[in-house]
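Team,

Forwarding the record for the chain on the shared tracking sheet. I've put the sequence and predicted structure together so nobody has to dig through attachments.
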Amino acid sequence: AANALPVKGTVLNTTIGVIATDAPLDPVACRRLATTGHDGLARAVRPAHSPLDGDTLFALATGTATPPAPDPLPPAFPPDLSLLDQLCTAAAVCVERAIVDAIRCAHTVAGIPAYSDLFPG
C-alpha cells in the first residue's frame, strides 16, 4: 500500500494505559472494564496483542459518583449490569480515541519518525 509504514526492526510494541472512572465499581467490574478497553486497543493498533508485546490496560474506580437509576432489566440481571455495560462500551471508545490522539500528537524522538512526519497534513 502507498501509505504503508516501514517494517519496524524491534519487538518493543507495548501499549500501556489506565481507564479511570468515578463510578462505584468493585474489583470484578474493574477487571471487566480493563478487559473491554482492549477492544479499543485492537481497533487502534494493528497488530494488537502479538506474542512479543505487553499490551496492558489497568482500570480503577474511585466510587465517588452516584450511579443513575438502573435501566429496567429482567430480574435475573443485577441492577448495575446496565451501568457496567455502558462504561465498558465507553472505555473501548475512549481507549481507541486516546491511542489515535497520541499518535497524531507525537513528535519524532531519537530518529524514530512520528506519524505526522511520515504523513504530514
